[in-house]
Amino acid sequence: MKVRDLSLAGAAVALALAVVQVNLLTGCRDPELQVLLVCSADANTTESMLRRLADEPGNAALARQVALSSGPAASNRAQLEAAGRLAPQEPNLLLARARAAALAGELEPAVNHLVRLAQHTNNEQALASLAKLVSVGGGEVLVPHISADSRWLVNALDRAVNDPGRLSNLSSLVVTGYQKGVISPEQLESLLRRMVQNKQATDAYAIWAALNPQGLPLLSNSNFREPINQGVFNWASPTTRSGATLKVVPDGGRGILEVRLSGRTFEPTLLRQMIMVPPGQYKVAGEWKSGQLRLEQGLEWAIRCEQLKPKAQGKALVTTEGRWQPFAFTIEVPEQCGPIATLELRTVAEFESKTGTSGVASFRDIRMSKIS
Fold first, then answer.
1. Helix extents (H) in 104-241
2. CA atoms in the 13 A half-sphere facing the CB of 231
């Protein structure tokens, strides 16, 4: 990270940790805790507490008093570090030491304290501070702290995704966690799916691309060798009960997507896939066949952009009378679309999905290439 970015990240951590001192100080107003806390201490009192802590290193209440006595600005850092050496795992001291380091512009020791605390106690304030660090673009600082047992990572990422910010630099963090087995395939899919739901699809795709350094095709699973509805950037179909059933049927090393309509109502969009493409023209081609498909106006491929109505591409697919036939069309991705578009297979007339119809349509070997 650049020096300026490190400064911003450190400031974010210090801001997130500001609540720590507030939480400690609320104990001064609690009658049950007043006997344990020193809410205002001079240097002599603090030195006395440090001497007691040396004799009683496991005395959490005493360690907490040292954290309080350092003051809201954590100005007496030497006292905090001395107390930390005597009680290295005391949560309040670790939080206070992290904030003092962040306020001093020393991000690395601050992160060290927070990671230790989040790893061993799942401390909410430590996790929230790590999540804030990620959301302001400081995720790379955490990469060296990832090991095979870094339980804190998934919890911190869960919170970061809910905090809108600069998540585009999550790639190295997530890739490292995934490669070391900290993030499971199921957790990765859940994380990416939540990012897409939170309007962070571009950042999610950047992570997916980083996990596939060999490169990604314009259209994923174009030959239907893999099942649909598995993976964020795969083909997806409505998963609720309806009159449309979509499944992949193996066919000699490739797959055939079978769309079966039962006569009951179904969603007009039968199949969709998010595609990350710049504005321009693209060719989509493949093969399809129909069997007793009772759709008067047929099916169509359409491109959908956020905040724009779906735009039909090519001719309607009405019937092939049971024979495989090629189809090809050009799609136009407009400037207003942004980096993410969606390719959809849908009914030409929405009312036909509402009245219900029957029949089968099959697709195979769908390809996409850039024209200009």
1. 107-121, 124-135, 152-161, 171-179, 185-197, 201-210
2. 12
Whether residue 156 contacts residue 43, with contact meaning beta carbons closer than 8 Å, is answered with no
Q: Are 160 and 167 in contact (CB under 8 A)?
A: yes
- pLDDT score of 30: 38
How many angstroms from the chain centroid is the CA of residue 222? 25
Do the beta carbons of residue 44 and residue 142 sit within 8 Å? no
Look up residue 280 and give its two tokens.
Answer: 């321009």
- For residue 47, the 8-state DSSP code is H
Kindly report which listed range (20-29, 82-91, 311-320, 350-359) carries the lowest average pLDDT score.
Answer: 20-29
What is the Cα–Cα distance from 131 to 35, expressed in whole angstroms?
34
Look-up: residue for tokens 């020096």?
A: 3
Q: Which residue, chain included where needed, has tokens 């999905």?
A: 353
Residue 117: Cβ-neighbour burial (10 angstroms; 0-12, 13-18, 19+)? buried
Assess whether pLDDT exceeds 90 at residue 154. Answer: yes
Taking the CB of residue 163, how many other CB atoms lie within 10 A of it? 14
The residues, any chain, with a CB within 8 Å of residue 340's CB and separated by 6 or more, are 201, 202, 205, 274, 275, 276, 306
Average pLDDT over all residues of the chain: 80
Q: Which two tokens stand for residue 153?
A: 């990572």
pLDDT at 63 over 70: no
pLDDT in tens, 257-285: 999 999 899 999 999 999 988 888 899 99
Q: How many CB atoms lie within 10 A of CB 323?
A: 9
Q: Which residues of 121-159 are buried (b: 16+ CB within 10 A; e: fewer)?
A: eebebbbbbbbbbbbbbbbbbbeebbeeebebbbbbbeb
